[in-house]
């Protein structure tokens, strides 16, 4: 049986709450992430915004792929994503909800496959489906010598 596809992302601390994120694609730009004020300086998106962007991007790409496996005109879809923060029973902030609002251009609205794609595209979005099902997260913290200080999951 073939090994499941993997990806690797490296975060390196810059200062305060800022991290440079490096992706495992040679031509992908490094991304600076930060926290909102008053903790951070809002120099880049924070984790909650990245999760919301990932959901919106995945849904948009999934719909585009389904509608037109060939050339799709630029600016065919505009996607607005709204995240809502909520406190859990312990009073900790969590992403309570993500709403994705997609507007497609007229040529896509009239595409022959549109009705079928609207029934299918959400199921093929890796990120949104994973979020809805809950993603197990393993956490390991090591010291500089590689000794495990904490392990969970």
What do you see in this structure?
It is a single chain. The chain has 153 residues and is of the alpha+beta class. The chain folds into 2 domains: 8-45; 51-133, 2-Layer Sandwich (GMP Synthetase, Chain A, domain 3). The protein contains 4 helices and 7 strands, in the order βββαββαααββ. The chain has helices at 47-67, 106-109, 114-120, 126-133, and strands at residues 9-15, 18-23, 31-33, 77-87, 93-104, 139-142, 148-152. It has a 3-stranded antiparallel sheet, with no helix packed on it. Strands 4-5 form a two-stranded antiparallel ribbon. β1 (9-15) and β2 form a beta hairpin. The longest helix has 21 residues, at 47-67. It is globular. The two termini are 25 Å apart.
Count of domain modules: 2
Q: What can be said about the biggest beta sheet?
A: 3 strands, antiparallel
In the CATH classification, which architecture of the largest domain applies? Answer: 2-Layer Sandwich
Count of alpha and pi helical runs: 4
Number of strands: 7
Shape: globular
Terminal Cα separation, in Å?
25 Å
| Helical residue percent band | 25-40%
CATH fold-level assignment of the largest domain: GMP Synthetase, Chain A, domain 3
- Give the amount of beta strand, in percent: 25-35%
Structural class: alpha+beta
- Give the low-pLDDT segments: none
Mean pLDDT across the residues is 92
Strand order, main sheet: write it out. 1-2-3
């Amino acid at each position: 049986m073939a090994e499941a596809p993997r990806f690797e992302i490296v975060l390196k601390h810059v200062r305060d709450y800022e991290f440079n994120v490096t992706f495992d694609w040679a031509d992908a730009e490094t991304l600076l992430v930060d926290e909102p004020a008053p903790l951070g300086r809002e120099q880049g998106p924070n984790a909650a915004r990245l999760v919301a962007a990932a959901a919106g991007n995945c849904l948009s790409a999934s719909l585009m792929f389904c509608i037109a496996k060939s050339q799709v005109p630029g600016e065919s879809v505009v996607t607005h994503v709204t995240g809502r923060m909520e406190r859990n029973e312990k009073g900790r902030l969590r992403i309570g909800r993500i709403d994705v609002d997609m507007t497609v251009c007229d040529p896509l609205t009239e595409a022959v496959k549109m009705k079928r794609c609207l029934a299918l595209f959400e199921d093929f979005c890796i990120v949104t489906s994973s979020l809805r099902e809950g993603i197990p997260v393993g956490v390991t913290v090591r010291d500089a010598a590689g000794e495990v200080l904490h392990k969970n999951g």
